[in-house]
C-alpha cells in the first residue's frame, strides 16, 4: 500500500522552504495539516489545493 501522507520535511522540500517555516505555518493554522499524536502530517491533495488557492489569491 502506498503511503498517503507527507512529513514536514517532505512538504518543506516540496514548497522550497525551511522546515521551520512549515512548523510556523502549522502553528498559525495557515496550511492544511493533520495532527496524529505528536506527528504533523499532510496530504498531497490538500497541499496542492492550498497552493492553487494561494496562487488565485495572489492574482487578486
Briefly, what is this?
This protein is 55% helix and 10% strand. By secondary structure, the protein is mainly α.
Description:
By secondary structure, this protein is mostly helical. The chain has one domain. It has three helices and two strands, in the order H-H-E-E-H. The chain has helices spanning 8-15, 19-27, 44-59; strands at residues 34-36, 39-41. Strands 1-2 form a two-stranded antiparallel ribbon. Strand 1 and strand 2 form a beta hairpin.
Question: Topology, pairings included?
Answer:
Elements (H helix, E strand, L loop, with lengths): L7 H8 L3 H9 L6 E3 L2 E3 L2 H16 L1
Antiparallel strand pairs: 1-2
Radius of gyration: 12 Å
Which strand order spans the largest sheet, edge to edge or round the barrel?
Answer: 1-2
Element string (H = helix, E = strand): HHEEH
Poorly predicted residue ranges: none
Outline type: globular
Helix amount: 55-70%
Total E-strand runs: 2
Mean pLDDT: 95
**Structure class:** mainly alpha
What portion of the residues fall into strands of 2 or more residues?
Answer: 5-15%
What is the CA-CA span between the terminal residues? 41 Å
* Biggest beta sheet attributes: 2 strands, antiparallel
Count of domain modules: 1
Q: How many individual helices?
A: 3
Amino acid at each position: 500500500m502506498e503511503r498517503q501522507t507527507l512529513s514536514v520535511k517532505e512538504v518543506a522540500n516540496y514548497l522550497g522552504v525551511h522546515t521551520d517555516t512549515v512548523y510556523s505555518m502549522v502553528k498559525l493554522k495557515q496550511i492544511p495539516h493533520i495532527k496524529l499524536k505528536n506527528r504533523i502530517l499532510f496530504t498531497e491533495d490538500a497541499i496542492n489545493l492550498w497552493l492553487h488557492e494561494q496562487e488565485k489569491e495572489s492574482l487578486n
